[in-house]
Design a protein that fits this description.
Number of strands: 7
Distance between the termini: 23 Å
Largest sheet: 4 strands, mixed
Number of helices: 3
Shape: elongated
Radius of gyration: 16 Å
C-alpha cells in the first residue's frame, strides 16, 4: 500500500483530503497547498512556454508565475517547484539561454535554488517503509 506522510523533527503527519487544496489550475500551471499541523507546502507544477516562443511571452509567463505564487503563499510555507521549464538551466547562448535566464530569474525571485529538491525529499517521502536514498 502506498501512503503519503510528512515528518518534521519527531512529529509524523499523514494528510487527509481536507489538508490538500487546489489554489490555482490552468493547463500550464497548477498550485496546490498541503497544510499539515507540522508544516505547509505549496506545490507549484509548471509547464513553461516552448523554446520557439518569443522572449516577451516567456518573460511574461515567469513574471506572472512569481506574482501568483507570492499572492497565494503564506508566511513560513515551503515551496516545492516541479517544472518543465523548457530551458537548459546553464545555457549561455541561443534561445535556450534566453529561456534559462527567465527561469533563473524566477527561481531567484522565489528564493529557490536547483538544490532545494534534496531538502524537500528529506522531509517528504511517499513510502512508509523507505527513506530517501543517500545517493539520490
Amino acid at each position: 500500500m502506498l501512503s503519503v506522510w510528512a515528518v518534521s523533527g519527531t512529529v509524523k503527519a499523514i494528510p487527509v483530503a481536507d489538508d490538500i487544496n487546489t489554489l490555482h489550475s490552468e493547463p500550464s500551471l497548477l498550485i496546490v497547498r498541503m497544510a499539515l499541523p507540522v508544516f505547509a507546502l505549496l506545490f507549484v507544477l509548471v509547464h513553461a512556454p516552448h523554446i520557439g516562443d518569443a522572449p516577451d511571452v516567456v518573460k511574461r509567463y515567469w513574471d506572472e508565475l512569481v506574482r501568483r505564487v507570492y499572492e497565494l503563499m503564506k508566511d513560513g510555507e515551503r515551496v516545492v517547484l516541479m517544472a518543465d521549464a523548457n530551458a537548459h538551466l546553464f545555457a549561455e547562448d541561443g534561445p535556450e539561454a534566453v529561456h534559462a535566464q527567465f527561469f533563473r530569474n524566477a527561481l531567484e525571485d522565489l528564493m529557490l535554488s536547483p538544490n532545494t529538491a534534496r531538502e524537500a525529499l528529506d522531509t517528504f517521502w511517499t513510502h512508509d517503509e523507505h527513506s530517501v536514498p543517500d545517493d539520490y
